[in-house]
Amino acid sequence: MGRCGRSADAPPAAGLDCATHFLRNAASARRFWLERAKERDMSGLLALLDDVASIAKVAAASVDDVIGQAAKAGAKAAGAVIDDAAVTPKYVQGFDASREVPIVWRIAKGSIFNKLVLLLPAALLLSTFAPWLISPLLMLGGAYLCFEGAEKVAHLFGGPHETADVSGADPAHLEEQKVAGAIKTDFILSAEIMTIVLAALPPSGIAMKAASLAAAGVGITVLVYGGVAMIVKADDLGVFMSLRGRLAATRALGRGIVHGMPWFLKLLTIVGTAAMIWVGGAIVVHGLYELGFGWLHHHIHDIAVAAADAVGQARGAVEWATTAFFDGLLGLALGLALIPVANWILLPLWGLVARLRPGTSSGR
User: Which sequence ranges are marked TM in the entry (predicted)?
Assistant: First the structure.
């Protein structure tokens, strides 16, 4: 018998049939193993895609959690945010219109640096190693908000106060001074904002806290300085509409914007001042409660509940408004009490420290 299972004396045609059968079997075997390999590759690819989809779902859920936590915590800092938006437009007053948006952009970049590079690591270290310091620092920031708001109220009722004459100053040098001052003010407000956000975050890992703080910081900065940019350019838009508008209604709207913007800025200042005093007072009252001195918090709560019971309708709104009123009243009283402390003690001490710094001349 031969290798193909035929006798040695079989005709040549039988040998040809045997070779053909062998080749067919080999081709079938090759197709079989190729299909098995493709199935393995396809199953591996499908498994990889399933893993990628699972990771994407987890990442999307994490992003949703980060954004949700950042939004909820950022809402707690509404008072400081409103004040930040109310304060910033004054830094572009007196400059050429072409420099307004670049100045706002420079302040916004400084604000991002303050929040993400300086304050975010400090907040994470604070929450990890000294969480007991959060309430006292919040109270310190709340007291500063009360002081700032009360100082504005004092200036409002104290008559006109002197302003520096900058008419002959170099515009570039003046811009540097204004931007530097704005970034310093933003650092204080950003510290208050980041501390409020940190205190409002639910318990979570350090990575989630960092992501939520970063998202809140960037979101608040975009909201504040994007709004400021629109506010400072609104009068230019109004002028354009009043001069180039095709419809009479468009031109009338443009004139209304031009005439209304000064009043809007004044309203924004009033709202920002009221928000500073209210939020600062609320932070101090809540901080005292957290430190074990809750009598003031309980008294305000009882008065608010009694007022809501007396009105009978819209109980939640009445209770909130009553609480905000007494928080603001306390904040105003605290701020007014801090004005002489700051002017007669803290500012002279700060001036003494500044004069003692190396490289500071005595005549400056």
Answer: 116-134, 210-232, 263-289, 329-354
